[in-house]
Amino acid sequence: MPDDERCQQFADYLLHNYVQTTSRFQPEIWACFTKDNRTTNACESFHFHLSRMFYSPSPNIFVFMENLRLIETEASLKRKKLQTIQIFAEARKTEIGKARGSP
pTM for the whole thing? Predict the structure, then answer.
């Protein structure tokens, strides 16, 4: 590390806020070594699709809000569909278990 007071202050800041177990943002919050999804692809995909909904860099606020409503509606429908599939899968698993004689 360079022998510069500013570099030392920045290193101390990183340790104090992000690395130490007593830090404000502990590694468990931001480190991805235990996570299955280690990329920002989902965020990048969302941003890409969001930006394609507009034809200018500064869209009208009402157009922006309407597009956000469309995104929320689509996400809500997908979530409900996944929940329904999960409910049916669990019911099917229960039926199979009963047919085999397990509780």
Answer: 0.47
